[in-house]
Amino acid sequence: MLSRAARPAFKAGSALTIRPVTAATPALQSANYATLREIEGRLKSIRNIEKITKTMKIVASTKLTRAQRAMNTSRSYGQTSNTVFEEAETKPLESEGKKTLLVVCSSDKGLCGGIHSGMTRYVRRLMTEHPSDYQLVIVGEKCKAQLSRSNPKDLALTFAGIGKDVPTFADAQAIADQISLLPEDYASIKIIYNKFLNAQSYEAVTVEAFSEEAIAASPNFAAFEIEDEVLANLREYALANSLYWALAEGHACEQSARRNAMDNASKNAGDMITRFQILFNRTRQAVITNELVDIITGASASEG
Amino acid sequence: MAFAWKAAGITYNRYLAVAARVVRRSLKDDKRLAAERRGEMDLRFAKWENGKQGESKNLAEANEASMQQAASGQ
Fold first, then answer.
1. CB B41 to CB A174 under 8 A?
2. What is the pLDDT of residues A43-58, one digit of tens each?
3. Dist. CA A79–CA A272, nearest whole Å
């Protein structure tokens, strides 16, 4: 308060123009105070954000261990189911005019870095190589939102509600059922999911789910002595197995990606907090120094 | 080989799911609760036609409805 009162007196002594200066100084000072308060407010909000991201990281970490366990079991399960086709040397049929169905396994939730966009990019690359050869079935809202913008005509089915918890086999079965009920006949079904390489890196890969003709046409198929009637069952079951595998692995990737993303976010928030703390202290000191200068100059002016 | 469930319009996966549910329900209480959580499914789905999203429906109900339709169609 004193400085504001003292300054006009000092300025009046030195300069002739009183009006503009008196008008300018309070504005300047209140601006100083405002920035100080502004910085304080931002500091507070960044601290809150850090708290939130830290909590999300912890949640993701605990979910990750469960997801990884589910992934490991489902992976061996899916691989065992695929051994049949490896032994039979099943190859996808190259049939003209039939489309390939792409099943994209993402999830509903975001805040986990670029793993959904990575998958979308992979799908788009496939689609640009052979346009109009593919139809899409999308599991999860995130990839749906991205792909419905670029390829709305190619979508056949979308599923939502996945990603709350570790995917169950019932989920995979229900999706497989709905896919096998699709009216169109597909040359083959490709399931796209994020493969878990390690905690830092994932890669969009495909597993093949073959059509009945492709299974029947495979070279070593006779060795299994499967009757034709149950072939449809095998196909449906294999589709559910592969889907389960893909969903579980994608879920583990997502949790691990979310953990990393939240870790980075907390780190960045910490950096910002230190930066803003330093700025806050500097500004506070500057304001105090300014006030002192004003007081002293005012005092010396009124003395002299 | 004709299966009774095939004639009823049930797919193999549905058949498995029903069988699994029966096994889960016959477990003892403590094990049953953990096992039944593995059988939960709460998905919604939507059909797309010509770039337009159709109505969002509950997947379990839709599956049952389509199977009933398949059964009556035969």
1. yes
2. 999 999 999 999 999 9
3. 46
